[in-house]
Specification:
Elements: E1 18-24, H1 28-41, H2 51-54, H3 70-73, E2 82-87, H4 94-101, H5 106-109, H6 113-117, H7 145-162, E3 165-172, H8 189-197, H9 205-215, E4 220-222, H10 232-241, E5 244-247, H11 253-267, E6 271-281, H12 284-289, H13 292-310, H14 316-319, E7 323-330, E8 339-347, E9 353-361, H15 364-384, E10 389-390, H16 413-427, H17 438-442
Parallel strand pairs: 1-2, 1-3, 3-4, 4-5, 5-10, 6-7
Antiparallel strand pairs: 6-8, 8-9
The protein binds nicotinamide-adenine-dinucleotide.
Nicotinamide-adenine-dinucleotide is lined by residues 24-30, 87-90, 101, 124-126, 131, 134, 136, 173-176, 205, 223-224, 249-250, 252-253, 283-285, 288, 364-365, 367-368.
């Protein structure tokens, strides 16, 4: 592939004017994100879970005592300058969709009801072949997939103009599509565009949104495990057009826990015999994932994590052949409040077995919403810094991080965090932090 992803950075342009955040999908995650930002803007809530709003970053030597907030160090768009837009096949406005999603309570929704009611989804590019469990009439028609993608481009231009936005970013918050393996249709930009014109089945709606965004110079973040931008064709297009892209699949709940615990086991050279994970989930996402074709896409995304962190090929005595099972069961009474159980069979000194049990009662969309905000703000920042192609430094937020061809993705949350912060330091002309601390001992 021609070009590079991160090496051609420049001094970031300032975050002037308005930033439009577009989400394909106006369901549980998107409405929780939008309602949260509005609630924070009005001073009703705090941005808990968001690095862009709450985290600090250490600069220079420890003795310098410089640890500003990330948002004071990096020129990020202010929350007050954000405008929201969405597409969804279900025509509900953001208020109605949030009520149906059942994540947020009336005490949080009612004070911002007018704001949410004004956000109405644009007609979606949607086909039941790719998501079987959703039925909605707010759907575009066109002579072929290329035509539909061109309509998305027009939506993007109209949104930008009507809302007087200086810049846009897109975060996929729509359903998980059926599993698609990359084929020749995704190999080059020419093959991809031809396949769009021929209505090829291998071109899913998520890819049309991604193509449209990149063509319009809009960074694209993929919150679902769908292939979407993770193809050579669209990665090349992103480099050619100078657009940052990232994915796949927001790292919330159980997988986030895995990327915390597994590096801990490996750091202490403790072995793993097996890891059994099961969830009950009752929201619409759970219903979509109840379809085996959509679950397959999710399963692939969840399974890759442990193997990549534990590296059984380097540590066969500890990790060769460990069992890894992931189940998601749709259980309506639970709504968005997922319950996950993990049974982890580990082994220690002389091979003695031990077990760790994790019972995580989490709220899926509450964990995902700050990720949407951070991805949008960081991707916009990356764009202003001249970054293009895959943004590996945003792997921190993804279950199944995209990596350049031939490279292994990094799954360890703590390495990902270091990479994220060092990228910010690098882009702002500060020294990388190695945590070596030699200056202290050498000065003695
Ligand atoms: N909540 C989490 O913790 C989490 C974590 C990782 C990934 N995700 C992913 O984020 C996505 C959103 O999750 P959710 O809980 O909000 O689901 P949801 O079902 O509440 O919302 C998804 C919305 O997308 C819409 N949609 C489907 N296809 C579309 C298309 N082609 N164009 C536009 N809209 C479309 C649906 O009508 C629905 O309103 C899912 O793919 C989910 O797997 C969520």
């Amino acid at each position: 592939m021609k070009g590079s992803s991160s090496s051609e950075s420049q001094k970031p342009m300032p975050a002037t004017g308005k930033l439009g955040i577009l989400t394909p999908g106006l369901g549980a995650v998107a409405t929780t994100f939008i309602a949260g930002v509005e609630s924070i803007r009005r001073g009703y809530s705090k941005p808990i879970g968001s690095l862009t709003q709450m985290a600090t970053i250490r600069l220079g030597k420890r003795t310098e005592n410089r640890s500003p907030l990330i948002k004071e160090f990096v020129p990020l768009t202010q929350l007050d300058d954000i405008v929201f837009g969405a597409w969804d096949p279900i025509p509900d406005d953001a208020y109605t969709a949030a009520k149906k999603a059942g994540v947020l309570e009336d005490k949080h929704l009612e004070p911002i009801a007018d704001f949410l009611k004004a956000i109405k989804p644009m007609p979606a590019v949607f086909e039941n072949h790719y998501v079987t469990r959703i039925h909605g009439k707010n759907v575009k028609t066109g002579k072929n997939k290329r035509d539909l993608a061109e309509q998305l481009r027009q939506d993007i231009r109209n949104f930008k103009k009507d809302n007087e936005c200086e810049r846009l970013v897109c975060v996929w918050c729509a359903s998980t599509e059926i599993f698609i393996v990359p084929g020749p249709q995704h190999a080059t930009i020419a093959a991809f565009e031809k396949a769009m014109e021929e209505n090829d089945e291998m071109i899913a709606p998520s890819m049309l949104y991604a193509w449209a965004c990149i063509m319009e110079g809009v960074p694209y973040c993929n919150g679902a495990p769908n292939l979407a931008v993770d193809t050579p064709a669209l990665q090349q297009l992103a480099i050619d057009k100078g657009v940052p892209i990232s994915g796949k699949d927001f790292k919330t709940g159980q997988t986030w826990m895995k990327t915390i615990i597994a590096p801990g086991l490996k750091a202490r050279m403790l072995g793993l015999e097996g890891w059994y994970s099961t969830n009950i989930l009752g929201n619409r996402d759970g219903e979509v994932l109840d379809d085996p074709a959509s679950f397959k896409t999710k399963e692939e995304s969840k399974l890759s994590v442990l193997h990549n962190i534990l590296q059984p090929e380097i540590y066969p005595d500890l990790y060769e052949g460990f069992a890894h099972v992931v189940r998601i069961n749709y259980y309506p009474p639970r709504g968005d409040n997922k319950e996950g159980w993990d049974n982890i069979d580990i082994k220690g000194w002389m091979g003695y077995p031990m077990q760790i049990k994790v019972n995580f009662l989490c709220r899926d969309s509450i964990l995902a919403a700050p990720i949407v905000l951070d991805l949008a703000l960081f991707s916009d920042f990356a764009h202003r810094a001249g970054m293009k192609g895959i943004q590996e430094w945003l792997s921190f937020y993804y279950k199944s991080p995209m990596a350049a061809a031939g490279l292994q993705p990094e799954h360890d949350l703590f390495i990902q965090q270091t990479k994220l912060k060092n990228t910010l330091r690098h882009l702002m002309g500060e020294e990388q932090i190695t945590h070596l601390g030699l200056e202290y001992y050498q000065s003695k």
